[in-house]
Amino acid sequence: MPIADLFRLDGAVAIVTGASSGLGLAFATALAEAGAAVAIAGRRAGHLERTGEEITARGGEALVVAADIADPAQCEALVTRTLERFGKVSILVNNAGIGSGGPALRESPADFRRVIDINLNGCFWMAQAFARHAERGGAIVNIGSVLGQTTAGLPHAAYSASKAAIAGLTRDLAAQWSQRRGIRVNCLAPGFFPSEMTAQYPEGYLDRMARDRTLMARLGEPEELAATLVWLVSPASGYVTGQTIVVDGGVSIT
């Protein structure tokens, strides 16, 4: 097979959570451009509809499903809807997540639990629902963060803990499912990219990170991260499982 064809996803069916905007939008549209049909999920139905319109405008096929992945029943329903529409599921991108902020001594139990419930528990519920129905040769990519490996000058106890845990979850699921179910499981850990989450950072923070912590002295482009995602779920990475792939411009080694 020609090398370029290994990056194609023709005939695949992907589910992308947190697909209403930002990196989730970039992931969903990139998968569609590579040939996959895409089920997009999130809590904001209006934003999801715009993502769906973007996919269809580029010639792709999209299914829009409003879902809160913190609820295991809604995760199962999302997979069921995808199966009803497309007949199979082959790719899961566990992108849905929320941030946290504020000093650790002020972070309430409810706030901490909410971050863990969506970022970590929701990731597991989705992976579990997907693996029950996925065809052999499937792929899961859990979206982690460079903040699961290093700190970056802002208080993010719950968020950092959840993203560090996702790397461990990825390794264990890969060990359980790569051979037994034929599902590769990897983690994609972004550095600093433009997104709804980073838009909430204090003024000047991202500029300082790009200047002082990023070896490439700039923020990442969403397309650079989406291209790595396409590689991770395509046959081009068919011998890669249980890994955390960091795309951060060098933040994690500074």
Description:
The protein is an alpha/beta fold. It has a single domain (3-248), classed as 3-Layer(aba) Sandwich (Rossmann fold), CATH 3.40.50. It has seven helices and seven strands; from the N terminus they run E-H-E-H-E-H-E-H-E-H-E-H-H-E. Strands 3-2-1-4-5-6-7 form a seven-stranded parallel β-sheet, with helices on both faces. Strand 5 (139-143), helix 5 (157-177) and strand 6 form a beta-alpha-beta unit. The longest helix has 23 residues, at 109-131. The protein is globular, with a radius of gyration of 17 Å. The N and C termini lie far apart (39 Å). The model has no long low-confidence stretch (mean pLDDT 94).
Please give a handful of descriptors for the protein shown.
single chain, 254 residues, alpha/beta, Rossmann fold, seven-stranded parallel beta sheet, 7 helices, 14% strand, globular
Number of helices: 7
Which bin fits the share of residues in helices?
A: 40-55%
CATH superfamily: NAD(P)-binding Rossmann-like Domain
CATH class, please? Alpha Beta
Largest sheet: 7 strands, parallel
SS strand fraction = 5-15%
Number of domains: 1
What is the CATH topology descriptor? Answer: Rossmann fold
Mean pLDDT: 94
The geometry reads as globular
Specify the CATH architecture. 3-Layer(aba) Sandwich
Instruction: Specify Rg, calculated over alpha carbons.
Output: 17 Å
What are the segments in which pLDDT stays under 50 over at least 5 consecutive residues?
A: none
Distance between the termini: 39 Å
